[in-house]
Amino acid sequence: MTLTVADLVAGYDPAVSALITRYFDENEAARTALDLADRAGRRLVIDHMAIRCHRVDERAGEFVALGYRYRDELVEYPDQGWWAKVYRKAGSPAIFIDQAYEDDRGRDSLLRPWVDRFGDRVLHHIAVLVPDIEAAKAEMERAGVQFSGDIVGPRGTRLRQIFTAAEARGGEAFSVLEGTTSPWWCVEVKDPDCEYAGTCGLRPVWQALQAAAEGVLDRLTLVDLQPQRQPAGRR
Questions:
Q1: Other Cβ atoms within 10 Å of 46 Cβ, number
Q2: 99-128: per-residue pLDDT in tens?
Q3: In whole angstroms, what is the distance from residue 175 CA to residue 163 CA?
Q4: What secondary structure does DSSP assign to 112-167, as a single string?
Q5: Structural domains for the chain
């Protein structure tokens, strides 16, 4: 059975499905990730998608009408001149809606000219969940995908991510694909205070990954972590 974009967006609101479908049509790295997942017989799970705009609250109106909610998740990057609100709906990927600061902090932000050029009806990026970010990066590099930098976040930390090199449209940087291994806080609690927990499609995935990781750690001892002594005569 072939894994398709239609499989990824099954059950999503038509407006969200259309954004994701267009993104995969226009982003080669995303299509490569989908093809690799299909060949390996595994799922491709979308963690979130990002929209750039000039006015967050105005752009969010379409998604609020569809049942997405903002629950005080604010992301800020003052060194890059922009910030975002995170909107969530049960059974759908989170939507990060980004905007340049309107004061001096956003003066040199690349986000504002990007929106002027491409508008706010397309996705800047999609983030896919991967259990092993190093392995995912190596697999995609073997398939010809280039990355814009190194993995952000050391091993063992909660937030780890990497972005592919920006793909161009009309000679200008347009969209990227993000690989992430960032679980949400709700994975660590039995009864999270979240109205979406009961029907969330991502929480069970992260709980399974966490259980697998904890199983490995439970089997390790300090002896396992000791450097192995080389046999005599070998270097």
A1: 21
A2: 999 999 999 999 999 999 999 999 999 999
A3: 10
A4: HHHHHHH-SSSEEEEEEE-S-HHHHHHHHHHTT--BSSPPBS-TTSS--EEEBPPE
A5: 5-182 (3.10.180.50)
